[in-house]
Write a structure and sequence with these properties.
8 helices, 5 strands, globular, 206 residues
Length: 206
Amino acid sequence: MRSDTALSIAERHDPALHTKPFCYRGRDSLPFDAADVPKLPLLLDTTVYIDRLQGRLPPALVPLLTLHSVRHSAVACAELTITLGMLDPAHPGTPQVAAAISNVLRTIDMRRTVEPSAEAFTQAGVLAGTLARTQGLARPKRGLSPADRCCQEGRRRELLNDALIYVSAIESEMLLLSRNTRHLDLLQQLEPSWNLLLYDAVDPRT
């Protein structure tokens, strides 16, 4: 029986080792090559659903989604469904947007959904906190305006969600498919892993 504590999990990463901001890497240093990935289940980031809705998913990803077993993230489900709750019932555009999101959710079989473990939550918290500090998202509240404080807190929550999806892909031995180059570049530098494939969205008008 495992005897890990939350502290022993958190101590796998030493935040004190990182005192300077991480720099964003060039495209050639990032995992964009869909032709050179292991044949593992794909874990879809929220960006995949959004780009599919908007017709911005690259055609090159279609064979990948066909050949690989696809899994869904509980974190991505939350990011999709929070929008349903936030939509203004009185707005004339709400029914159309709600219907589009509902159609996406209808394709997600909860039996094929991956949720982060307690260990993943603990690791993701350390990773997100370290990056929040090094990338300037941990400024004292007393020095911020209410708007800046809210913005900083929102960006930290986004970073935590991305860390949760990334870590859950690693622990589940799945390949995370995402357009979120900005956060995942930093996370991969902090916690190196091959469990990531990035892509660029396309313009649906072309």
